[in-house]
């Protein structure tokens, strides 16, 4: 039974070996794919032309819209992608399930590549510079930034330690986007990653906000105020952003009003207080999933200790 006050934010299980445990089969499988594709690209550099997203060649090589997301051309890139995938998937898969997580990764990866392709074509027609058509674009950063948005949705109040700072998970996607934009002005090589990262954040939010099916309610999307578009920005910018976001809301979400069998209009706007209730439900789901994972680890430790004691008794 839910009380009137919001439950405390879930905390991550602590332990000296917890960093190396609890990774799911799906994420470990995708990590192997990232590593293998990176090795193929290093051994056969010409493979980049067939796997990465090159806008001038995307029309005949349409599979690039899918494969480009799994091509990391640098060693630091593949290391960051694998570590991020394992850590973020470790949090999200117990809450979503393997099927939903794989669906999320596919949709975010494909939609991000499609948006990057369209942006490159538009920039070419504006500037007439062929670099936008022939530069190979790739990387898993779109999916990684999308997974951060998923963590923002499900565990918004979870505090993450970033060096000497403690930052709530709900601010991590915005912080990553801001730092990436700032650094790209000084490091030109990062400019090719910036569209992938920004579109990954936006397209994952679009999917989670309007299209993801919630098993507990049978509805689609997340209408809570805590997950609105303006929630990615500081408080003082929200009065400016909310009217703009409402326009895209009407375009993307046709469920604000619908007609019944008699042709009458039904108002499906959320009831007062439903936003906070939905946020509480997300926190409770995160709490249960994390507690279950901690209990499983504790049971495994006790089982190993019992096996050791039995062996000692026999000796």
UniProtKB/TrEMBL annotation:
InterPro entries: Rhomboid-like_sf, TMEM115/Pdh1/Rbl19. One of its GO terms (cellular component) is membrane. It comes from Setaria viridis (Green bristlegrass). Gene3D superfamilies: Rhomboid-like. Keywords: Membrane, Transmembrane, Transmembrane helix. This is Peptidase S54 rhomboid domain-containing protein. Pfam families: DUF1751 (PF08551). GO terms for biological process: retrograde vesicle-mediated transport, Golgi to endoplasmic reticulum. It is a multi-pass membrane protein. It is found in: Membrane.
